[in-house]
Amino acid sequence: MLRSAGCLLILSGGFWGWYDTVRRWRQELRLVEQMASDLEQMENEIALSLTPMPRLLKKLVSHRFTGAFFGAVADRISRGGDLGQAWREEAAHHFSGPARRTLMELRLDGDEASVRRHLTWAAQQLRRQAQADRNRQKDREKLCTALCASGALFLVILLL
Q1: Domain interval for residue 118
Q2: DSSP state of 62
Q3: pTM to 2 decimal places
Q4: Closest to 13 measured CA to CA, from 128, 149, 159
Q5: 118 lies in some domain
Q6: What pLDDT does residue 53 have?
Q7: Does residue 46 belong to any structural domain of this protein?
Q8: Helix/strand/coil for 108
Q9: Is the pLDDT assigned to residue 82 strictly greater than 90?
């Protein structure tokens, strides 16, 4: 009975490890896709209605995946911080990998045309990264499934 309970706990631990890893990968992919959409929306808002950056950031706070990022940047600039520095520091905190590099390279200072050009560039870079991640996602999930299942089954065999 005790061995059966141990086997069940080991298998559930392997499942939990798989689930948590896959969930985190999917969440990161959604975050990058949402950020690309938000940057495109920012570019359109600047082009069509000349919305000031602080008001635009506050408007994007309501977005599900990227709202915390925009809220943190908006909060820092409302307290008198520099937009570029706040953007880079929050990008380093909320993003990882190529998305982090892209967002940290994004320049939001300068004239309207320059800002729009940089926003378009960053959105395109994030779209490319999201597509590449989506193409690798299935293989990564299969590999993670095999690793977690075989690891859990190996421990069960050792227990028995």
Answers
A1: 32-159
A2: G
A3: 0.82
A4: 149
A5: yes
A6: 84
A7: yes
A8: coil
A9: no
Please give the DSSP secondary-structure letter assigned to residue 97: H
> Scanning the structure block, which residue is given the tokens 């990022």?
69
Q: Check: CB of residue 130 under 8 Å from CB of residue 32.
A: yes
Residue 48 in tokens = 């069509």
8 Å CB contact between 95 and 31 = yes
Which residues, at least 6 apart from 14, have a Cβ–Cβ distance to it below 8 Å?
Answer: 148, 149, 151, 152, 153, 155
Please work out, in degrees rounded to the nearest 5, the angle formed at the alpha carbon of residue 136 by the alpha carbons of 70 and 15: 85
pLDDT tens per residue, range 54-75: 888 888 888 888 999 999 999 9
Secondary structure (DSSP) of 14-61: HHHHHHHHHHHHHHHHHHHHHHHHHHHHHHHHHHHH---HHHHHHHGG
The dihedral formed by the CA atoms of 108, 123, 24 and 90, expressed in degrees to the nearest 10: 0
Which among 75, 74, 73, 102 is positioned nearest to 89, based on CA atoms? 73
Within a domain: 7: no
**CA-closest candidate to residue 153, choices 18, 2, 1:** 18
Answer whether residue 137 is part of any domain. Answer: yes
Q: How many structural domains compose the chain?
A: 1
The predicted structure's pLDDT at residue 10: 85
The Cα 143–Cα 64 span in angstroms is 29
